[in-house]
């Protein structure tokens, strides 16, 4: 074989070898221990709560929302769902929509009328005056709750709540839940200037129950408190 043919043959062989090697590598999976090595192990952690959206940062309940976000971090091991939460601003009177379900990612907020317990407002003024975790107090409790199972009870479709703090630890045993009630409605407020009182439950208007329970669902936080002087 002369030098010219040998060189031509050698180059062709080299090109074929390179092409075959490239095709072989392209046929291999893109990932796998052969190429990537063992997957890095990510330490178990709970995602942080997104920053407060601008849409809610200037709302009257913004301070309560920040307290709720801190509670969400404090109770992080209880929550896998951290996209939305509900806050109940008991600084506001019962005639105002004071349950706010906040989308922590998009910033949208849905607000609803909600009751407080008769033990928290013995004179039925329309304002919550005190909290209690005691049995038979008929009062509202403050703090962080985890939304639990949905069920059908004497008030129709309802949702259980699990108290996560010392001041609401009896919530399950006291049957503190989210449910519908006719005394929590725009018509009732128009007639009486305030909502009726529950026995400590977070009662909302019956026609609102599907929306509230749909937005919350089991496994999210409901946070209730009164942090102002009203």
UniProtKB/TrEMBL annotation:
Q: Which domain of life is it from?
A: Bacteria
Record's InterPro entries? YkuD_2 (IPR032676)
Pfam families noted in UniProt: YkuD_2 (PF13645)
**Name used for this protein in its record:** Murein L,D-transpeptidase catalytic domain family protein
Q: What is the lineage of its organism?
A: Bacteria, Pseudomonadati, Pseudomonadota, Alphaproteobacteria, Sphingomonadales
């Amino acid at each position: 074989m002369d030098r010219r043919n040998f060189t031509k043959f050698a180059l062709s062989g080299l090109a074929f070898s390179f092409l075959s090697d490239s095709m072989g590598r392209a046929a291999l999976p893109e990932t796998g221990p052969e190429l990537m090595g063992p997957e890095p192990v990510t330490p178990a952690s709970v995602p942080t709560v997104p920053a407060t959206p601008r849409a809610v940062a200037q709302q009257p309940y913004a301070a309560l929302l920040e307290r709720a976000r801190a509670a969400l971090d404090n109770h992080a091991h209880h929550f896998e769902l951290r996209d939305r939460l509900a806050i109940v601003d008991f600084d506001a009177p019962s005639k105002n929509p004071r349950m706010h379900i906040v989308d922590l990612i998009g910033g949208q907020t849905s607000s609803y009328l909600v009751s407080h317990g008769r033990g928290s407002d013995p004179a039925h003024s329309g304002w919550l005056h005190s909290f209690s975790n005691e049995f038979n107090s008929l009062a509202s409790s403050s703090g962080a709750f985890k939304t639990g199972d949905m069920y059908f009870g004497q008030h129709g479709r309802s949702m259980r709540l699990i108290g996560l703090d010392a001041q609401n630890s009896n919530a399950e045993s006291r049957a503190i839940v989210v449910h519908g009630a006719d005394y929590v409605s725009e018509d009732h407020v128009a007639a009486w200037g305030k909502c009726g009182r529950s026995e400590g439950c977070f009662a909302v208007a019956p026609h609102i129950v599907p929306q509230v329970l749909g937005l919350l669902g089991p496994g999210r936080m409901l946070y209730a408190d009164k942090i102002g002087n009203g």
